[in-house]
Design the sequence.
């Protein structure tokens, strides 16, 4: 009898014994499931990993398929980048918050823009009423961007910008600010989110229809490969898909399906996969189910490595590596007993680190209530620092590798992700699947099922549906000064009257021409930005030429 | 026989977070109501005109961006101007508790914060309709 056969026999006997005892002392639940409703067995053994092949399935760290991590030494070499997403009010206020975070030991910047900026409207547009400076900083022109990064040397920091539909414009502004600081574009490090597909799916800050949106994205790929070689040209995001209610499997599946669509669009535009492939980056969520989340990150790396090598024939190992940013799960935070959120964030941050993230944002305890206060952000940053310096989890690579449970979860997620990708391929790819509403419907079904589970107390959320207390309304929440909108409008009026109007009109006309043809749009956008054309004017030209996306509304 | 309660769920402003709006829309539909969801980026004018056109009993507004103090009262104001005061308006989203008295003074009947069970919203609607169902 082989060892495994003997184990099988012993497991059968053991199970009979345990089930018998269960009749008297039953387990806590009839069925145990993960945070994403996948069944969890009582115990995982070598029988669950019969065909486990270390080099094939995991690979040494920094080796294909990168299940254990994309770098050979991971956090022994350098800790992940601690990057808190921040921005509110005017460029002056956000600049002060960035300087504070850098003083506190944060190692990268992450810019939050307000909704008008994200949707390509100036602060004086009627639809911007009430929204200016609320969920991020208001940027109308290069002048605001100069203030935002005033006193911050752009060759010394890496900057991530959560900007999608108008990503080309904000990237152009960043390049122009750097130039004024005497920093050339090839010295810049950072990321633009630039992921329009998940805007259609889950986040909502789209402007243009899919075809011109994909063109803008591939124009950025091409421009950066030549001029801004260290820039991450896209951050293909599962974060918002998960926030919209998806499961862990759906988060990975839909994100990688979007990734496939971007690679295909770039190939169709005539780019070489190994030219843009190494600059693709990803962005995932981290929820509370520690092991499932760790397995999710590991599975995502393995699946993407195979897609890039086997499906797209990439030759450069850097194209195979899935590098990602993580943010802890905003939707898991409760408005009830908000200090408990610190513990949730700790678990989620731990999952991201055990899962090998390249950078991390930890949410603040008060984010179910408002934008975070400075104190709340500091605790969130300290949470990362305690994990990094005190917990010991960063001292070895992929510490959960070989756990029967974690490897089984990783395998299951991989299998189910591949099933989804197959289904989306059959529908004609991610763009078609979005246009048909397939991806949105899958996510909405999961979101609704989760809500019903919580309402039936089948899922316990501490402080929400169990262990509740009577509480007083929270005090000291951050409020954005309502005068921001007025101040921003005044700045804009001053800009419009002082700039060289002829240069603005010339550069906008050149942009319109390029939009009608096939030239790379980054070049005329950069010229318009430097002439102090506003974001709304630039996006306005593109709106006229490209039209606007009309979603298919369903629930 | 009683007719069904008609509800418009709407997303005013530029905020794209509509998980909550869609969950509530579906829960109200499962509770037997007729529900219309506007989709994102609706102006107060568009919302009120949809409400009148669809002859709804209730409007549910959802905002997570912080623009509620500006946009919620505008919807109620426009309803009044259109002579549709008998439409019940409630709100939800990330809304600080200290803003709720102001919103109520502007005619928002109730505000449901994060973590509210859908059953509570359903009960609230049934108990507070401003038009008869038969």
Sequence:
């Amino acid at each position: 009898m082989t060892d495994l056969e003997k184990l099988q026999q012993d497991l059968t006997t053991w199970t009979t014994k345990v089930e018998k005892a269960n009749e008297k002392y039953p387990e806590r639940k009839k069925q145990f499931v993960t945070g994403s409703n996948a069944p969890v067995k009582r115990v995982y053994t070598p029988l669950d990993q019969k065909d486990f092949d270390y080099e094939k399935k995991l690979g040494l760290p920094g080796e294909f398929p990168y299940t254990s991590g994309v770098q050979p030494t991971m956090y022994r070499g350098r800790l992940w980048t601690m990057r808190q997403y921040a921005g509110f009010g005017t460029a002056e206020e956000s600049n002060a918050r960035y300087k504070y975070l850098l003083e506190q030991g944060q190692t990268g910047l992450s810019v939050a823009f307000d909704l008008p900026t994200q949707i390509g409207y100036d602060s004086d547009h009627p639809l911007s009423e009430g929204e200016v400076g609320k969920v991020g900083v208001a940027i109308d022109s290069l002048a605001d961007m100069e203030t935002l990064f005033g006193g911050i040397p752009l060759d010394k920091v890496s900057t991530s910008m959560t900007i999608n539909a108008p990503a080309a414009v904000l990237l152009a502004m960043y390049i122009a600010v750097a130039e004024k600081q005497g920093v050339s574009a090839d010295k810049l490090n950072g990321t633009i989110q630039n992921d329009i597909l998940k805007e259609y799916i889950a986040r909502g800050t789209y402007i243009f229809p899919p075809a011109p949106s994909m063109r803008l994205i591939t124009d950025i790929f091409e421009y950066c490969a030549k001029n801004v070689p260290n820039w991450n040209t896209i951050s293909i995001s599962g974060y918002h898909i998960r926030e919209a209610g998806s499961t862990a499997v759906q988060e990975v599946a839909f994100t990688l399906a979007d990734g496939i669509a971007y690679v295909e669009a770039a190939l169709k535009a005539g780019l070489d996969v190994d030219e843009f492939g190494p600059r693709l980056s990803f962005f995932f969520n981290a929820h509370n189910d520690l092991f499932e989340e760790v397995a999710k990150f590991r599975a995502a790396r393995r699946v993407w490595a195979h897609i890039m090598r086997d499906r797209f024939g990439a030759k450069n190992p850097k194209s195979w590596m899935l590098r990602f940013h993580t943010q802890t799960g905003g939707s898991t935070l409760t408005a009830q007993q908000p200090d408990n959120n610190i513990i949730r964030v700790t678990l989620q941050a731990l999952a991201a680190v055990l899962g090998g993230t390249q950078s991390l944002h930890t949410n603040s305890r008060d984010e179910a209530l408002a934008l975070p206060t400075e104190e709340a952000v500091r605790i969130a940053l300290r949470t990362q620092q305690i994990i990094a310096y005190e917990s010991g989890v960063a001292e070895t690579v992929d510490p959960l590798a070989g756990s029967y449970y974690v490897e089984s979860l990783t395998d299951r997620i991989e299998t189910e992700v591949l099933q989804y990708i197959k289904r989306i391929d059959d529908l004609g790819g991610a763009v078609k699947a979005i246009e048909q509403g397939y991806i949105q419907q899958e996510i909405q079904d999961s979101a609704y099922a989760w809500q019903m589970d919580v309402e039936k107390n089948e899922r316990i959320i501490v402080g929400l549906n169990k262990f509740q207390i009577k509480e007083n309304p929270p005090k000291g929440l951050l409020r954005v000064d309502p005068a921001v909108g007025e101040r921003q409008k005044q700045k804009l009026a001053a800009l419009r009257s002082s700039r060289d109007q002829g240069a603005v009109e010339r550069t906008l006309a050149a942009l319109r021409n390029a939009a009608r043809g096939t030239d790379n749009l980054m070049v005329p956008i950069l010229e318009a930005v430097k002439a102090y054309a506003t974001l709304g004017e630039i996006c306005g030209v593109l709106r006229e030429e490209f039209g606007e996306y009309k979603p298919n509304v369903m629930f | 026989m009683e007719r069904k309660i008609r509800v418009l769920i709407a997303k005013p402003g530029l905020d794209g977070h509509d998980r909550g709006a869609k969950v509530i829309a579906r829960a109200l539909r499962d509770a037997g109501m007729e529900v219309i969801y506007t989709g994102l980026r609706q102006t107060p004018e568009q919302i009120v005109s949809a409400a009148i056109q669809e002859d709804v009993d209730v409007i549910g507004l959802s905002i997570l961006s912080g623009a509620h103090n500006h946009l919620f009262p505008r919807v109620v104001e426009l309803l009044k101007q259109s002579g549709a005061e008998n439409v019940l308006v409630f709100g939800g989203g990330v809304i600080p508790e200290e803003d709720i008295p102001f919103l109520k003074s502007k005619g928002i009947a109730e505000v449901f914060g994060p973590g509210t069970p859908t059953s509570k919203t359903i009960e609230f609607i049934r108990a507070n309709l401003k038009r008869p169902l038969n």
Notes: The first strand of chain A starts at residue 81 and ends at 82. Chain A has two domains: 18-78+221-226+234-459, 83-192+481-555.
